[in-house]
Amino acid sequence: MAAADPRAVVDETRRAAALRRTVDVACALLRQARLTRPEAESVVAFTRTRVLELFPGKQDVFDLVLAPRFARILDEFCTRPARVLPFRRR
């Protein structure tokens, strides 16, 4: 069995750490920033783009592992647009 290329292992480790930091920062932002739903969805879309830059071709993994995590956070922490009742004049 051939040994793994040390440079490939270092690169994979670096990308995995960057992935972890990116997702952790996005999750913290979504939980703490009181974003509207569209703003939060923009954060998730940017995070997805960044993750796929780090790991091209892994859209299925993102959709399977990270998308449900982001969906739960959005459902719990994102504010809905305020519903303004119409003002009726007398």
Structural features, described:
This protein is mainly alpha-helical and 90 residues long. 71% of the residues lie in helices and 0% in strands. It has helices at 6-32, 37-54, 59-77.
Count of helix runs: 3
Quote the distance from N terminus to C terminus. 85 Å
Sketch the topology as an H/E string, one letter per element. HHH
- β content, as a range? under 5%
Q: Indicate the radius of gyration in whole angstroms.
A: 19 Å
Structural class: mainly alpha
Overall 3D geometry? elongated
**Main sheet specs:** none
Relative helix content = over 70%
**Integer average pLDDT:** 91
Number of strands: 0
Low-confidence stretches: none
Question: What would the keywords be for this entry?
Answer:
mainly alpha, 3 helices, 71% helix
Summed up, what is this model?
This protein has 90 residues and is an all-alpha fold. It has helices spanning 6-32, 37-54, 59-77.
Task: Give the topology.
Blueprint: H1 6-32, H2 37-54, H3 59-77
